[in-house]
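Task: sequence in, structure out. Protein: Glycosyl hydrolase family 32 N-terminal domain-containing protein.
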Amino acid sequence: MRRRTIMTAAAAVTIGAAALPVRAAAAPGGGEVHAGTFEKIYDPSVGQPEQWYVNDHTIVRGDDGTWHLFGITHPEPADPENERHFAHATAPALHGPWTRRPYALDYDPAVGETHLWAPYVLKHAGLWYMFYSSGGPSESSHLSVATSPDLWTWTRVGTGILFTDGYDTRDPFVLRLDGRWILYYTANSTPAGGNHIVAYRESTDLVHWGDKHVAYTDPESGTFGGPTESPYVVHHAGRWYLFTGPRPDYVGTDVFVSDDPLHFDVADKVGHIASHAAEVVRDVDGSWWVTHAGWGQGGVYLAPLHWR
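Result:
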């Protein structure tokens, strides 16, 4: 149940307002942090001869006000090892209508990439950075980066590879903290397996990253597909919140709270959201939203995110 999302290079197809909204078939959540009703905002299958999925994804607003969605994608059914392109869609507003665009990036086996998973995009010093999982040799995986001046054309920084870690390394998320950058990702306590963890590394330039540290350790152990995928860390009302999953099933994300963004504990769960590969998004009016997507889910969904 790794991060995935992909899109076709066919001509752009506009998803009209008639396609909105559709409710997600998801179990209820609850707790101090919880979500409202999920509504479908993007269906990658519209105008296509087959059904497509979007899995792990990222949503950002460009300098001109256009919203961009990037993610893992592939025709149904799930085929993670062949997810080799990043989906791209755009919209004038967060809730759409979304327009399907050609792939944002294609995998490059010449630089050691075996797939493209779980993009995360941010802007720094006038340049957009896309962090992503690019695969690698058996029992190891690369995290990579590409940059863009405009969110449309992406170029790898060298080979793209930032660092290599063990079995479960994927799903990067990056935030700014006290003058440095923190890159969170899912991993294991040992390269060949062990407890599922949310790891992190630090950088001053978004390209050179330090040693591996641990922000969260789960009691569950294994190799891949554990409950610490899609980590997303949010600062709200003076505290830090870690969103991660799938927990306990494919469509499920737990939320943990801490005063320290580099340390979360399993005992500090404060919420559950019926979402897979959840991303937290703030709209232009300051409202909070959370996403849902995945294999067999029919597209990308959005729900209001509530804090208590």
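The chain has one domain: 33-307.
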